[in-house]
Structure formats: C-alpha cells, structure tokens
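Lab notebook: predicted structure, single chain.

Context: the supervisor wants predicted structures on file for every construct in the current expression panel, including those that have not yet been purified. This is the next one on the list. No modifications to the sequence; it matches the entry in the shared construct table.
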Amino acid sequence: MLDAFRGNQALKESLQAALRAGRLSHSVLLCGEAGCGSGFAARCLAADYLYPEGGPQANAVLEGRAAECIEVRGEGASGEIRIDAVRQVRRKVFETALSANGRAVIFYGAQKMNASSANALLKVLEEPPEGVLFVLTATSAAAVLPTIRSRCAIYPIAPVTRQECVAWLRENCPDCKDPELLAAVYDGHIGRAAAAAREPQAAQSFETACQLAQAVAKGDRYRLMQLLAGYEKDKPAAARLLADLASVAAAELAGAGRFGMSAHQAARTASQCGETLQNMNRNLNQKLLLTILAARIAR
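Prediction complete. Output recorded below exactly as produced.
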C-alpha cells in the first residue's frame, strides 16, 4: 500500500525494505508539514505491516475501519492527545488477544501529547508487546517530546512536486477547476490542495483567500475589511483563511502571477498573516486584529 503514497520514493523504498527484512522498528515517527500526507502514509505502512499481500483487509486499514488498526487523534479545539486515550490503547494492546496478523496503533499529531500522555506512552514503547507496530505522525521531529522521539525510527516526509500534485488532483478530483493554481498555492501539499478541491469549508476559505489577494493587488481596503468581517467570531475559520492567504501570497512571490500582487505586496501580506495568526493564538481581540490586518496589507 505504500506504493499508493505519492512522491517520497526513498522513504517508501526504505520502509518497504525494512518490512521485507523483518527489521522495521516497533515504533516509527513520520514527520511532515500539514498536508504532506503523513497520516495517509501511516495507514499505508500499517496496512503493509498487517496485510503484506494487500486485499480488502488492507483497504480497510487505509479507510480507517480495521479492528486491527487502532487510531488515536487529539480531542477538543486544542487537538491535545490526553492520557486517557493512551491508557485505553495500553489496555487494548496488552489485555486483548492479537490476531495472527498482529496489530498497529497510529497516533496522529504526536506533537500534541502533553507530558502525562507522553509518559504513559513511553512505558509501552520501552517494553512493547510482541506483534504491535506503533506509528506516530508529527509536523516535525523537534515538536515531539524527546523521550518519545528517542524511542522511534524517524522518517521525514516531503511535499510532492507541483507536477505530481497537479497529476494527483486531475486523477482524484476530476471536478477541480484549476489544479495548477491549487498545486502552486499549496506548493505540493496534496492534503491541503485536495481539501480545497473537495471540502466545502476549505474550498470557501481558498476562494476567499483568492478574493483577498485581488483586493490587496488593488489596494482596496474596504473590500478587504468586508471579506474579513465574516471571520471575526470564528477563530478556526479565520486561522485557516490567514494560512490560505499566506500561501496565496507565497505563490505570487514564487511567480504564480494570478492575482496581480507585486512582490512587495505579496511579501508584506505573507508576513502580516503570520503576525496576525500569532496574535490570535495569544487570544488578542480577533475583530481588532483583522481590522488592523486589512489596513496594513491595503497599503
């Protein structure tokens, strides 16, 4: 199933060789920025570990509906992985019988573990049960607590090329109107590009980011304030929009040339989006922050 994961050929060959030789570490950490596909890669690896011959059961792992593959995600707005979730995993892997194929456990976003949940998982990783593969994903190895990181074999995941991203979008999102633009804006991050092509909220955010970029190019402060006003009370949506606008600006800097932004406008917009996101995370007044953003990027 790793062959279904686009790009990262060296990574796939390394993991496949380790699987064939029976020397894959019992705990693997896959590191990649959001949208690089680390979660999909984790399921591919789990499927190949449990069902090397493939088939319907391997497909069930990819689709997240296999009993032999336990998936753990963060909870709440913070996405924190809490100690109760780790304890539940420990009970499942130690107190229930394994199938002949073994078991896989995937922790999505391991950087979201607090000290208590990390310590609980550490006890399992130090003395792992036989036949269980632990696969962790994270935005970067440095973001994972050192005690966990040191127990894992670390594999970095990179974005695919823009050409590969365009090809994937054409194959998997036939209704996508402009795969070249999505690939340029999200710089080969298939997950983010696919979300903008498929998911209504992500698509709306991307479209609004494009409209904001056009308003920046024209210096239209009123239009900027009008577009941003709809995000004054929705922090997650505003964060996504600012990340999208920063990506659009970065694409313009790289030569996309779709929205008429000058290099100075694009650089300023990307910088101001990052600063606004930081201030939002500090829980400063969101309405005021977006008003200030509109004024600064309209110059």
